Amino acid sequence: MYDYLRPIRPGLRPPRRSVDLHIIPIVSLIYSFALIDRINLGAARTAGMGPALHLEIGERFSIATVMYFIPYILLQIPGNLVIRKFGARNYLTFCVTCWGAVQLAMGFVKTWGYLTFCRVLLGLFEASFFPAIVYMISSWYTRYEVQKRLAFFYLMSLTISGFSPILAYVFSLLNGKRNIAGWSWIFIIEGSVTLFLGVVAFFLVPDFPELNTFLSPDQTKFVLQRVEEDRGDSVPDQLTVRKLLYHLGDWTLWAYGLMFMCCTLPAYALAYFISIILKGLGWSTTAALLLSAPPYAPAFFSAVFFAWLSDKTRHRAGFIVIQGLISITGLCLTAFSPQNSVRYLGIFLLNAGSSGCIPSILAYSANNVVGSSKRSISSAITVAFGGVGGIIASTVYREQDFPRYLPGLWVTLGAQFLLLFLVGVLSLYFTRMNRLSREGKLAGPLEGQPGFFYTL
After folding, report:
1. Disulfide engineering: 107 pairs with which of 16, 188, 303, 335, CB 3.0-4.6 Å?
2. Where would I find the Major facilitator superfamily (MFS) profile domain in this sequence (predicted)?
């Protein structure tokens, strides 16, 4: 345990840049391939996997898509409970290597049943990665530094993965090489890259602050002391069954999860169906794959701008509302405009709004919990509900609704209004609790931490 009372070497500055460079680029690169491996099913189908595995029969494609999310949701909390026991580097390396192997194996499946089985395994091994990274990143930074980092992490990953359709098109050009279909090459090459990143992860992925090896002892203590002064949870508390049940009884954690579900639903819908929708609008297979990438570029700049503004103003809810309204605007254009060019513009707006909401909600939840154990449970619940958004996206965009998918777009639109409602409820609750705490009308400090107030 670090001695917070012993003075730190005079003139020592917070090592934020060093921490940023050691954490954000490598986890962003790895997670980008988690996203690519998760969402390349639509591109592979467009490139010929559909007829090869008879995915057009009934709801086979939706079933293969949705089965990924069953283990993905169920293993969120267990994964976050054991990461400190095994160490972030060891645990995350194991996960990356395993899902890379599964992704490579998908290139050799002969039936849609084996494809679905591989999707289940993929969900099993990817389940813990995202909540573990969110948990780890939030443990390094103070409350009003974290959204910019989460935004850069997520959006760098999303931007890289946004080129997945282009990569899929390039890899599909290998069709017939070594008697392997083009869609199979997509899985084989991308799985091989993920396996390589698993090796890289063992050497480069950092650990939690108190276990890191790239900072000096004084720098490490400085990081921990800043976190301790900000929210009082730099030293991890032991998670017991009683604590687990107590944390699960906090309704705000489930509200964050529902909000996350609402903003991931359009993200998954675009990931799985954008190339299919574009092809249905009349573009060729090549054009549909190539036009799937551009909507991801503006989303990066939009979300980073809102993250910077949110950290600067120390405010979260209002910016979530603004980005939710951007998503609603994009959905309305995509669903109801008769012109394909306007519908394509709507996809840009939808992607910008939903992509920006994701790090915003992660930061909102991270700012309003105290304690390492509660933080791990909160991030796991939040990301698990993101998987629920994936299930909804996989099932409401039905084969019989091709090419416009209006019922799916209506469901996605309703989710955005639910998001705005939940933000309003939480804002009213946090405002009231902060007021009662300042007036001394509560039995104890908020979240059990003296001086703590909820971030609005």
Report:
1. 188
2. 23-432
